[in-house]
């Protein structure tokens, strides 16, 4: 019987260092930045190029950048996806970009590009955290 | 800023490239595994687009 096994003793909690805190924060503000500050140059640059390119293409396709809202559930989820882009989201909002264009089908593709860029950035932030706590090489 | 007009397939292709790069890097530990997993994700994305495209064509006809 393997009941009552103390799992906490087998897997020690990760050590919270300054790097472990900074990596996801920098990754949030600058896509791939969390990897770059840990000298993971190749991975950081590839993540940066991929996520920034998706975000910029989304804007060029006249995609919509959602603002905080309490309306339709898809609009609320769209906001949480968009805000994952971090620094790019705030710059885009400040420059009044991402107004959307409901008259064009490709603008809807752009909206999806913007949301997925944010979601991919959240995945990249989690990866930077795992590298910082030594869970991933 | 002039709007960018991409076809559905081009948009799906670019989406697959960028998402596969991120998935490959974040979901595997070694460079070799990252490349393999990224290529696998890319193939699934594009394969899914082609299968869905033919499925919609069959539904229409």
Description of the structure:
The complex is a heterodimer of chains A (137) and B (61). With 137 residues, chain A is mainly α. Chain A has one domain. In chain A, 63% of the residues lie in helices and 0% in strands. Chain A has seven helices and no strands. Chain A is elongated and about 55 Å long. Chain B is mainly α and 61 residues long. Chain B has one domain (9-60). Chain B is 82% helix and 0% strand. Chain B has two helices and no strands. Chain B has helices at residues 8-27, 31-60. In chain B, α1 runs antiparallel to α2. Chain B is flat and about 45 Å long. Chain B starts with 7 loop residues before the first helix and ends with a helix. The mean pLDDT of chain B is 95. Chains A and B meet through α4 and α7 of A and α1 of B.
Give the helix proportion of chain A (percent range): 55-70%
The helix/strand class of chain A is mainly alpha
Class from helix and strand fractions of chain B: mainly alpha
Q: Sketch the major β-sheet of chain A.
A: none
Please, what is the average pLDDT of chain A? 91
- Overall, the morphology of chain B is flat
N- and C-termini, Cα separation of chain B: 40 Å
What is the assembly state of the chains in this entry?
heterodimer
Order of helices and strands of chain A: HHHHHHH
Count the domains of chain A: 1
Radius of gyration of chain A: 18 Å
SSE topology sketch:
The complex is a heterodimer of chains A (137) and B (61).
Chain A: H1 7-10, H2 18-29, H3 33-36, H4 41-60, H5 73-82, H6 87-94, H7 105-132
Helix pairs in contact in A: 2-7, 4-7, 5-7
Chain B: H1 8-27, H2 31-60
Question: Which descriptors would you attach to this protein?
Answer:
heterodimer; A: 137 residues; mainly alpha; B: 61 residues; 2 helices; flat
Give a quick rundown of the structure.
By secondary structure, chain A is mostly helical.
């Amino acid at each position: 019987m393997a009941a009552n096994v103390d799992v906490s003793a087998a897997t020690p909690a990760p050590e919270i260092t300054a790097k472990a805190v900074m990596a996801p924060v920098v990754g949030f503000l600058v896509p791939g930045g969390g990897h770059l500050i840990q000298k993971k140059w190749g991975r950081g640059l590839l993540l940066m190029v991929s996520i920034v390119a998706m975000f910029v293409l989304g804007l060029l396709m006249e995609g919509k950048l959602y603002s905080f809202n309490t309306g339709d559930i898809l609009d609320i989820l769209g906001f949480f996806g968009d805000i994952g882009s971090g620094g790019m989201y705030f710059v885009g909002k400040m420059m009044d970009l991402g107004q959307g264009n409901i008259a064009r089908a490709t603008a809807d593709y752009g909206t999806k590009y913007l949301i997925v860029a944010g979601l991919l950035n959240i995945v990249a932030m989690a990866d930077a955290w795992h590298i910082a706590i030594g869970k991933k090489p | 800023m002039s709007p960018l007009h991409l076809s559905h397939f081009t948009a799906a292709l670019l989406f697959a490239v960028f998402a596969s790069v991120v998935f490959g890097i974040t979901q595997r530990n070694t460079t070799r595994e990252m490349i393999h997993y990224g290529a696998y994700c890319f193939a699934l994305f594009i394969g899914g687009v082609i299968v869905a495209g033919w499925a919609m064509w069959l539904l229409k006809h």
